[in-house]
Amino acid sequence: MLRIDELVAQLGGELDGDGSVRLRRVATLEQAGEGDLAFLANAKYLGQLKTSRAAAFIVSSAHRDVVADRPRIVTGDPYLYFARASRFFNPAPPIVPGVHSLASVRCAVPPSAAIDAGAVVEEGALIGEGVSIGANCYVGRSARIGHGTRLAPNVTVYAECVLGANCIVHSGAVIGSDGFGFAREPSGAWVKIPQVGKVVIGDDVEIGSNTSIDRGVLDDTVIGNGVKLDNQIQIAHNVHIGEHTAMAGSSGVAGSARIGARCVIGGQVGIVGHVSIADDVMISGCTLISKPIRKRGVYTGGLPQQTHAEWVKNFSHLRHLDALANKIRLLEQRLERQEARINPSPSCS
User: Which of 190-194, 300-304, 321-325 has the highest average model confidence (pLDDT)?
Assistant: First the structure.
């Protein structure tokens, strides 16, 4: 348990109310009870704020007086404050240093690192201080893992790939697999192009479960500092992703695309190869990016849902758009000729 004034002393914010109230965890407005700290980040949940049984709240200045009977932490961004408070109450579990007897390690490992059963670390790998390598992970020859980075069980890091400091890689992620590179014979057969680049990942990157990041063909695939990748994302060879960009699940980025810094990319977005996206771009879910984006802003390419009957009716019109455009063009030309006959241009004398 932690007094609320002690939390504010650690994280900042403005405290209204009794600072001696003790907190045990962060909870939702709906589920919070005695000893819980809840937060209001969206005004549409104002009704839940009024009825919540939480011991204290994180709110913006606009809502500081809605629940004046209990302590409030007033802050400009309640959701951000919630994230920091949640980390305070739920720190990452400490690692237990040591190499399990059932791990296969062919390189020097610092005493502060932890390598679990079934993990394989090949020769030439560089393992930083405080690294945690989960059960059944594979770290290839000459790969580098920066200090404080944690690999969950069943992560694969191919040879020569680089992970920076304090990264988190979730189970099933594959870093450094071959990119999809083939040339075609006249017969139609495919010739594999060796993928000899690396994957270079910066510091403080989080990679979701079953996400794949392909190594470059000749140059490297590069993931900048602070990038956050959700589950089941495909990053193809030679892609560059700028610092602090976040990408939601099931998105795919084709080869040699370049994504700027601080972008936010929704789920199931597709980005075609060789396009560039500027810094500070937001892309709505299910959007296809097929040409460069040169200016910051919000971009959307999906259609809103509709009933099947409405979709069939609308699509039947869509199939005839070209013919309709031709008809409109002909009608415009006919109107122009009629107007010319009615209002002839004055002749020059």
Answer: 190-194
The candidate with the shortest Cα–Cα distance to 67, out of 22, 29, 111, 20, is: 29
Cα–Cα distance, 137 to 159 (Å, whole number): 13
Q: Long-range contact list for 213-220, CB < 8 A, 24+ apart?
A: 213/173, 213/174, 213/175, 213/176, 213/177, 214/176, 214/177, 214/178, 214/179, 214/180, 214/239, 214/255, 215/158, 215/161, 215/176, 215/177, 215/178, 215/179, 216/179, 217/179, 217/181, 217/193, 217/255
| d(C-alpha 135, C-alpha 184), whole Å | 40
Q: Give the DSSP letter string of 211-224.
A: -EEEPPSSS-EEE-
Contacts of 237 by beta carbon, 8 Å cutoff, 6+ apart: 178, 179, 180, 181, 195, 197, 214, 215, 216, 217, 221, 255, 256
Picking from 119, 152, 123, 149, the residue whose alpha carbon sits closest to that of residue 137 is 119
Residue partners of 112: CB distance under 8 A and separation at least 6 = 97, 129, 130
CB hemisphere CA count around 144 (13 angstroms)? 12
To the query of whether residue 100 is one of the catalytic residues in this protein, the response is: no
Catalytic residue among 237, 244, 274, 320: 237
205 CB-side CA count, 13 A: 27
The amino acid at 42 = N
Distances (CA, A) of 33 to 16, 67, 177: 19, 15, 47
- Whole-prediction pTM: 0.88
Buried-state track 245-264, b at ≥16 Cβ within 10 A, e below 16 = bbbbbbbbbbbbbbbbbbbb
CB atoms within 10 A of CB 224: 22
Q: What is the pLDDT of residues 244-272, one digit of tens each?
A: 999 999 999 999 999 999 999 999 999 99
